[in-house]
Each structure stands twice: as structure tokens, then as C-alpha cells.
Amino acid sequence: MARPGVYISWPFCAQKCTYCNFASGVFSRELEHQYLDALLREMEATGWTRRTGSRSDPLCAFENQAPDTVYLGGGTPSRIAAADLERILDAVPGRPWREATIEAAPGAIDAESAACWRELGITRVSLGVQSFDSAELARTGRRHTSEMVARDVDTLRRAGIGNFNIDLIAGLPGQTAKSWSASLEWIERIEAPHVSIYMLEVDEDSRLGREVLFHGIRYGAQAVPPDDEIAGMYETAVERLAALGLARYEISNFARPGCESLHNLKYWRLEPYIGFGADAHSFDGQWRWQNVESVEEYVKRPRPEESRVRANLSEERFFVGLRLMEGIQPEAGHEMAISRFLREGLLEHSGSRLRLTNRGVLLSNEVLQEFIECPTRA
């Protein structure tokens, strides 16, 4: 079995962005200290190679399996104090890992922080840029500028962290084909080795999403581009990034050869990973489990696991694997759905593998939904 990855949730932010639908936000410093203590307790309880618990305990699946990737997500884990970050990473065996990523807010990276991350084993930084247009950023609540992002990139490279990701969102309020093109020009200017392109998610879990759904006017909700324009921006990005040598290897992710996210590939290839912190998810190859979402509840629970379900691997290979441009090796089952999507030009064969077409990528939610079944609860 492949070595597991580790995901560490740090749900604390300086401000809550209007589009954000993650379980993160602004909390008190006292709660942040309590959370750190709870996080370290959870990580230390895993025991890794010294575990002696019951074999029915799901964490025993990771016994003698030191992780080879680490991902600190949030929230804004780049705000973690150096001493606290050291304590967290010291609790993860396997250093130096094949890859260790930390998410960062642009405009707040200095030489000291970058050098500290590199010393602690961080090899990759994911910058939540979202846009290089000042008007679009102001509407979302982001405080950085394009020049700040360029300085951050230079700081990371000087510290020896040349592998970084730039997040962009297609569909922000007020976004136009011209402003989107300008953001893509910045990708070329800073020579980003990895880019994630997300189409704006409209749901009730974000302030902007609620305004759009209920026809409100706050946060620029009425200036969100129509779906066809958002799809056009995504297609433009695919073409522009390919010309820069950034190949699409997953629906939302583009990279130069060798710069793909090793940790995220574990999710899409159904390899094991263990999550720590509020709302963190884990998968041991057979079972999935999830921690409580609430930060307040997480710090109070001696064991934060909330739910555990048996994975339906036959279904998940389609639902997760088809996100990758390499596609999947189809197995028995779903013949009718596969035939229909082949006829409609949403799926295609590439040798013996099955993958989404370019049109299928744009309609991927419809395609992937076909392969979901309710999992069996333990």
C-alpha cells in the first residue's frame, strides 16, 4: 500500500472572504491556543509506529506507515507562529517528506518566515491569490495586490522554495474577459509552476453564494458573470496555461512536468491519508472518517471523530479518478452510463483508459454525479 499523506487543518483567518465556503473563520486568540493543544493531542494519540490500540481502531491502518506528504490547509496556516509550527511538524514522522505544502495568504510572507518553513521541511507553498485585479480583490475582502504576490514569489524562491501554486477563481463579481486575461498574464510574468483554476461555487455556505441564490445585492452578487462566461474564462485559462507549459492534469489543476501536487494526487488516486484538526477527513483504503466541523466542539472532544463510513471503491474510482486527465481503467459496472456519455461526447477512450473530453470537463458535475451511490454506514 502507498504511504499515507497527512492533512492538517488550521481553520483560522485574519478575515473571512465573501466567496469562502470552508469551515474556517475569525476566532479569538484564546480559542486558537486551545485548538493548538487539541491538535497536538490528536496527532500524538496516533502513535504512528508505537501504536498499541485495538486492531478495530481505524488509525491502526497507519501503523508503521510514516507519511510521505504533508499538507497544512485552512484557513491560513501561514499565520502559525514559528515555534507552534515546529511543534506541529515535529509530531509528523517521515521528515524529509517527498512534499510538504503550506497554504498562505499573499502579502504576508517575509524572508524570515520563508526560511523557517524551508528549515522545518516545507517544500511547497499554495498562495490564495484568487485574482490579480484590485477591484475584484476588494469585493471579495482580499487585501493583497499583484505586486505583493510578485514579492512573495521572489521571497519564496530566495528561501529555496521554488515550487508554489497560485489559486485563481473564475467568476468573481465584476470579472470580465479582459480582467481574467490580465490575471493570466501575471501567471506568465511570475513563471508559476502550478496553478489551480476554480469556477466560483454558489451555495449557502458562503456569504456571496447566499446573496446570489436569494437575489441579494451585497458583495457584488449581481455582478457575478453568467455561467457561460465563466466557462469561457476556464477554457481560456486551459489554452493560455498549456501555451506556458502548464498541462491540465486534473479538472482544476495545471502544472509543469514534475510540479504536480503529490499530496492531492493521493485523493484522486484513492491512496490513504489521515487528517488532523476540525473538519479533517481521513481514508485508510477501506474506511472514511471525518472530524467534527466546529472548532469550538473540536477543542472539547478527547476524540474528535464524528462519522465513519465504508468506502464504495467501485463507485469512487469513477467519481474521483475521472477528475484526472489520465483517466481510469474502467471496471465492470455503469456500462449504460458510460455508453451514454460516450455517445454524448462527454467521455472518450484513450487506449484502454476512460477519460473526460474537453466538453466533459465543463459538464463534469453532471457526469461524476452519475457514479455516486450512498456509502454503507458502519
Key traits:
single chain, alpha/beta, nine-stranded mixed β-sheet, 14 helices, 15 strands
Question: Any low-confidence stretches, pLDDT <50, length ≥5?
Answer: 49-56, 374-378
| Distance N to C terminus | 23 Å
Strand order of the largest sheet: 7-8-6-5-4-3-2-1-9
Gyration radius from CA atoms, angstroms? 21 Å
Number of strands: 15
* CATH 4th-level superfamily of the largest domain: tm_1862 like domain
The gross shape turns out to be globular
CATH architecture of the largest domain: Alpha-Beta Horseshoe
**Biggest beta sheet attributes:** 9 strands, mixed
Strand percentage: 15-25%
Q: What count of structural domains?
A: 2
Helix coverage percent: 25-40%
Mean pLDDT: 90
SSE topology string: EHEHEHEHHEHEHHEEHEEEHEHHEEHHE
CATH class placement of the largest domain: Alpha Beta
- Helix/strand-derived class? alpha/beta
Tally of helical segments: 14
Quick summary of this structure?
The chain is an alpha/beta fold and 378 residues long. Helix content is 35%, strand content 20%. The chain folds into two domains: 5-267, tm_1862 like domain (pyruvate-formate lyase- activating enzyme), CATH 3.80.30.20; 312-378, Arc Repressor Mutant, subunit A.
Write up this protein.
With 378 residues, the chain is of the alpha/beta class. It folds into two domains: 5-267, tm_1862 like domain (pyruvate-formate lyase- activating enzyme, Alpha-Beta Horseshoe), CATH 3.80.30.20; 312-378, Arc Repressor Mutant, subunit A. The chain contains 14 helices and 15 strands. The protein has a nine-stranded mixed sheet with strand order 7-8-6-5-4-3-2-1-9, sandwiched between helices. α6 runs parallel beside α8 (227-243).
